[in-house]
Amino acid sequence: MIADAGDVAFNICAFLSTLFALEYGADTFVKHTAIVATRIGISPVLVALFTAGAEWEELTVVLGALAQKRASLALGNVVGSAISNILGAFSLGLLFYERGRTIAFDRSARIYSLLLLALTTAVVPIIYYPKPIVWLISGPVLITTFCVYFGIATAAIVQGVLTAPDSDSDSDSSTGSVNDIDEEDLVDSTTGLLSGQQNETSTRRQSHTLTYHTAYLLFGLFAISLAGYVLSRAAINIVDAFEISDVLFSVIFIALATTLPEKFIAVISAHLGQPGILVANCAGSNIFLLSLCCGIIMTATKGDLDRGSIELFEIAALWVSTAAFTLTVWFGARFAPWIGAVMLVAYVAFIVLEFTVVHIND
């Protein structure tokens, strides 16, 4: 019993400590990818689309779980993270939006929200019915859909149909567009917000070479890859030790842990009066999860989820929260703080029901 308790404690500590490595790796990868892209002449707008709206840490956890034959853990993480991005991160953004100003979502935000609702509506029935032939077809289709989405969004941004994840052009504040972001802003914006030493740090960063930033980019990619594997392995050991559902653990605990960056971005962007970033962060992350990550899971497993599938309650929570997100962006800006409070309460209720009702017999 003592040995078992020691093993459990070790795996819990490994799970928690690996989260820091995962977030550090993702942060390093995103920041230095942005700088390398800027140095070689790629538009910062496209960098924002590729980094801010991409769940690289989630993808590594999914791949790690699949490598260890725990597809239920991977799928639960995707669904739980998608719910958490809306009911957890987006709701916090609405609550912490700059006081004294009314949120104004622009055309790009509305387009992103509609794309997410359409994708979610198409994907949720497929997730709920893991039939081999359906998943065998749907997996490559979803991966292709992500590639098409990325290509169309890129072309639309270049042509000016969509704006970057930025504030409404009619905003009263002069915050600038993503096209005006220079490389030191891409690296040090978070550091500056937290420490107030952005200018000094930025000056030091300018002296670094392209090789330096490329090396950090590769190091960040290695860190998130390694952390994703260790995190999924630790999660599996914890699930097995406590004999709880793969889906329950991944929908709640892993999803909460891996979406911490989205919550941080939501709060900061809202506090600075940037509704475009708030929407793009949420919609882009969920499109990434429900297209690329789901497509990989379906292609790899072909519907073989021998450790539990997603419950109807979780599917319903995903679709209803996405519909609420879209309606808020289109029609609910005036009531944003109230909607944020309701969403946050709904997320707490979702977690409680997962433990007390949905998976009580698992």
From TrEMBL:
Main location: membrane
PANTHER family attached to this UniProt entry: INNER MEMBRANE PROTEIN YRBG (PTHR10846:SF8), SODIUM/POTASSIUM/CALCIUM EXCHANGER (PTHR10846)
Gene3D superfamilies: NCX, central ion-binding region (1.20.1420.30)
Residues passing through the membrane, by range: 73-97, 109-129, 141-162, 210-231, 277-300, 312-332, 338-360
GO molecular function: calcium channel activity; calcium, potassium:sodium antiporter activity
Keyword Transmembrane helix: yes
Family: Belongs to the Ca(2+):cation antiporter (CaCA) (TC 2.A.19) family. SLC24A subfamily.
Protein name, entry field: Sodium/calcium exchanger membrane region domain-containing protein
Membrane topology type: Multi-pass membrane protein
Compartments (UniProt record): Membrane
Signal peptide: none
Native source species: Akanthomyces muscarius
GO CC, one annotated term: plasma membrane
Keywords for the protein's UniProt record, in alphabetical order: Antiport, Membrane, Transmembrane, Transmembrane helix, Transport
Domain of life, source organism: Eukaryota
Annotated GO biological process: intracellular calcium ion homeostasis
Domain Sodium/calcium exchanger membrane region residue range list: 12-153, 214-353
Pfam families the UniProt entry points to: Na_Ca_ex
InterPro entries according to UniProt: K/Na/Ca-exchanger, NaCa_Exmemb, NCX_ion-bd_dom_sf
